[in-house]
Amino acid sequence: MAKSFFPYAYTKEILPNGLTVYVIPMESPGLVAYYSVVRTGSRDEYEPGKSGFAHFFEHMMFRGTKKYPGPVYDSLITGIGADANAYTTDDYTAYHLNFAKDDLEQVIDVESDRFQNLSYAEREFQTEAGAVYGEYRKSVTNPFALLNEKVQDVAYDVHTYKHTTMGFEADIKRMPEGYAYSKSFYQRYYRPDNVVLLIAGDVAASTTLPLVRKYYGGWTKGYVPPVLGTEPAQTAERSAEVSYPGKTLPVLDVAFKGDAFDPGNRAYVAAVLLGELAFGETSDLYKRLYIQEQKVDILDAGIPANRDTPLFEIVARIKNEADLDAVREAIYATLREYQTTPVDARRLGDLKRRQRYQFLMGLDTPDRVAGGLARFAAITGGIEVVEKLYSAIDTVTPEEVRAAATRYFIPERRTVVVLRGSRQ
Amino acid sequence: MKTLSVVCLALGLMPAVMIGGEPVDTRTFVLLPVKNDPTVSFRLWFKVGSQNDPSGKEGLAAITGQMLADASTMSNTYAHIIDLLYPLAADYAASVSTEMTVIAGRVHKDNLAAYYPLLMDAILAPAFTQEDLDRIKSQALNELETTLRYASDEELGKAVLYNAVFAGTPYGHIVTGTADGVKSITLDDVKTFYKTHYTRDNVVPGVGGGYDQGLIDRLAGDLSTLPTGVPRVVPVPQVPATEGFHVTIVDKDAPATAISMGFPINVLRGSREWYALAVANSWLGEHRNASSHLYQVIREERGLNYGDHSYIENFPRGGMRQMPPQNVARRKQLFEIWIRPVPLEAGHFALRAALREFKQVAHNGLTENAFTLTRSFLKNYVLHYAPTTMQRLGYALDDRFYGITGSHLEMFRKVMGEITREEVNAAIRTHWQYGSMQIAVITKDGATFRDALVADTPSPITYKTAKPESVLNEDKEIAAFPLQVKKENVKVVPVGEVLQR
Q1: Which of B36, B82, B133 is the best substitution to test chain A (most A C-beta atoms within 10 A)?
Q2: Beta A414-421 vs A238-244: how paired, if at all?
Q3: What is the pLDDT of residues A17-50, one digit of tens each?
Q4: Domains along chain B?
Q5: Touching check for B287 and chain A: CB below 8 Å?
Q6: Which among A100, A268, B15, B386 is placed 20 to 30 Å from A284, CA to CA?
Q7: What is the pTM of this model?
Q8: Where are the beta strands (DSSP E) in A101-231?
């Protein structure tokens, strides 16, 4: 029998309305993690002027229902001492709570209610828009936020990955006008056939699933997928400069269009390892630029797991602007080297071993288990893919790494953005 | 002796008892065995922190910690250490705070044999090379001169607040130090600091998870090779009482206004009063939680910012974490209010709103409903403070720091079942006085802000969208709420000058 990477046995059920539920019992005396993963994020914001709306809507989900109005919801969650929050990404939105196991039914009750019966007045909607603008404001002084915004804008023409999850500032400013749209957003995306529940910790499937059926069973299906345009093939390298209104070390971002998450795509799986191999802390380039020559104080690279084609990004922060061209050339030389020479098998083996142990050691609390699975559940609809991914990673060869470098690292996939401070 | 130990370490042949001194007494260890835990957690606590930085060398404790954990040893270069740790999926890091330095790491039991000698090497045989020092100093300088000054106004606000509250005391500079201090640090400074503070008499080893007794004996032997010596104890900071509000305005081209304010308090965890004050504080400003009253007033009702919170213990990097950190314990704590960035035109208003709420709770205490709900919240919420062995080990070390017999977290839950509203309101009366505070404001056009503050100019705000009558009426009171700030108690500092010396 093949060895298993994911260490916990779990139970899966798909309700007749399409809601997918995983119950993952694990040793965690008295504690439960409860993740509602909505398979909608900033990727789904295809209508013009609506960038940032998925994130804004996440905030509205805390404004209550007729049965449990906002303040009542808040005091129920406060009263049971739950650690509750939510976040939005490009591909999904997750609502998560950690709580004592005796409160499971209470949590299922209030969570299922807000997913089915959310209700808020226009005035509350408009006030919340102010809080979202505040969230934008707290991050806007971060140069990486500005850089990220530019890279995505330049790299994509049509696809919604063109904007960040936070959204364009102009759209955030106009959010208070979007009350009617928010109702349609809820109707189309907050449907059981677009949601995965992950319940991990001190729970049993035999007692949890009947509660899920009872409280979520009446939720009607009706997910309407977004109308996403097809990103045309890039034909030439793109580049841009960003001026940061303050003082910062210059940052170089070299991005290549990659492939969507697919453990069956050998090039994709090899690319997952490529960032670490070529630019990670054991790479020759890192040792040279970071430790010996000390030309950079940040060097990082990798490709995220996404439903559609994300960017494989290499990011370097350069200590002395005069070194910028040399650093860029060193990055390109490394890319060429990986296209011509298969990586050392021992280094590849070390990385696989590291990934395996990191994965295992990261699964030590219910929150980390459910939280760690959330993205996989969101982009594939289930968590079975974790096993497939780690099995695939385990069999990647040096030649496949070389082939992936050849596939992805070409000028026709490349976007290069340099950020500089306006004040030195 | 050191050379021999390095060779032994490199070969993984370390005997249980080293040549030389007696093993460190294992009764001083903080141990947290967890039989089914497939990993082992280490937290080696040295009783040293930024309070021990020599004058003019602010940042030395932090840099020395990094020179152990992120640098070469006598047996391996830093680059090679990274290679060796890599397949083990483990590392170690130094966490330096005001009073504590903890070298911490976690490893799967499968990899313990390979990991342990590397961890010991880092602590017992650092190489202290110029190359490593240059790299680490340049990171610290970038943090002070670029990141704090320009990339995160809320972190800057906190730094300015801490430095102002504890000015003139060993707590009077942030852990990263000052730009001038960091620049002046030499290899000799690091070596001397290490010799003085990293002694066998100044370490409390913490180990948790699925370890066996052999590991503990071995650790006791290995740490015995550190030099002996008890460093001079830094006195607890004595902060002279401030009269009225003292304001530091950092002037910069800011897109929004960030505010932090607070004053020192004389209460530490472990005492019943602390738990009483924790109830009051949770109600007023529970960290990143909608149950915070300040959050309700400033964010939920008015939409002015992302969050508003308060603290009765040191809580570094609040924007990056949900739960309280471990091993940042101190003998002197600060009461702190954190107003996340608000629109520039609402800065004065938000400051008034927060101070008005604080004044009300300081005078009136908690209502019965607020008390009951908050107590019930905390009783379960503390369960989330330490779900992992590593976190529980951190709390166990903090218990040792504060002289708590038993467990702070267990005591917290127990006291929440017993405490009365009278106790909470008595703690408020003792520890929260309205009227005297240090305030840090990061904003654009600081001189204008100062003038409005000193003149107590009304600060009405308008909303782009409709608000309930009750909010608008309360706004009128907030906008005219007198702060009575004296001109001589306000200073405006250009951003380029903060954290310099």
Answers
A1: B82
A2: parallel
A3: 999 999 999 999 899 999 999 999 999 999 999 9
A4: 2-223 (3.30.830.10), 245-495 (3.30.830.10)
A5: no
A6: A268
A7: 0.92
A8: 195-201
